[in-house]
Amino acid sequence: MKSIGEVAARFGLPTHALRHWEAEGLLTPARAGDRRRYTDEDLYRVAAILISKEAGFGLPDIRTMLTARSAPARHEVMARHRERLLARIARAQAALDMLEGGLECPHDDIMTCPHFQGFLTDRLRPSPETNSAQPDG
After folding, report:
1. Are 28 and 22 in contact (CB under 8 A)?
2. What is the DSSP string of 75-125?
3. For residues 11 and 2, is the Cβ–Cβ distance under 8 A?
């Protein structure tokens, strides 16, 4: 069993974050008198909360995911966030590709570099949403 200070230090968190997560129903540490005592199971929950937050989950969805009484209820929340995360990954990969293209550019003016411009081509293509919003002409 670990104290709140030990758990906070282990994950690089302020102790008030653990207290807040407890108030939000994400953690339920045991009590020894007036002191919180965290088990190994609690440490796994803290790790799951941190990873979920990094993936863009809000605390209500993390609570739903961790406390769901059925797999379908949990899967619904996770599937929704999976789609959002995949979109974020795609945007981050496009940004990384652009940066790598810029690093490979030998030109003084990056905007005249054909190689770099090749990485920007996708942004110049109309998206399906843009096409459907334009009037026929």
Report:
1. yes
2. HHHHHHHHHHHHHHHHHHHHHHHHHHHHHH--SSSGGG-HHHHHHHHHHHS
3. no
Q: What is the pLDDT along the chain (137 residues), one digit of tens a residue?
A: 999 999 999 999 999 999 999 999 999 999 999 999 999 999 999 999 999 999 888 999 999 999 888 999 889 889 988 998 899 999 999 889 888 888 888 888 988 888 888 878 877 888 766 555 555 54
Number of residues written out for the chain: 137
CATH 1.10.1660.10 is right for the domain spanning 4-67: yes
Q: Give me the residue spans of the domains in the chain.
A: 4-67, 71-125
